[in-house]
Design brief:
single chain; 90 residues; alpha+beta; 3 helices; 30% helix
Length: 90
């Protein structure tokens, strides 16, 4: 029986960071920029680390979320239909 793969904390964080940086984000409906981020709720040290290093990750301390997306340029929250965030896929 093979030993289970053990990943370091850094490897796990790197995988999460890569997933968010590859994420397709919708443009801001107010200013049109693509400098937007997925809004996440919570305060644990991995989310604080992600918020400080990944421009596609916007952290707020408590819910409910004011929107599912955040524009880093005009500093506004917004929502778009799920299909729009997936390039028209449903």
């Amino acid at each position: 029986m093979a030993a289970p793969e053990t990943r370091t904390r850094q490897q796990i964080y790197d995988e999460i960071y890569a997933r968010f940086t590859r994420m397709e984000v919708p443009p801001c409906p107010q200013c049109g920029t693509s400098n937007t981020a997925s809004v996440q709720v919570g305060i644990v040290w991995i989310t604080i680390w992600m918020a400080s290093t990944c421009p596609k990750f916007k952290l707020i301390p408590n819910g409910p979320k004011p929107g599912n997306w955040f524009c880093n340029t005009c500093q506004k929250f917004f929502d778009v239909p799920y299909e729009q965030t997936q390039g028209g896929k449903s």
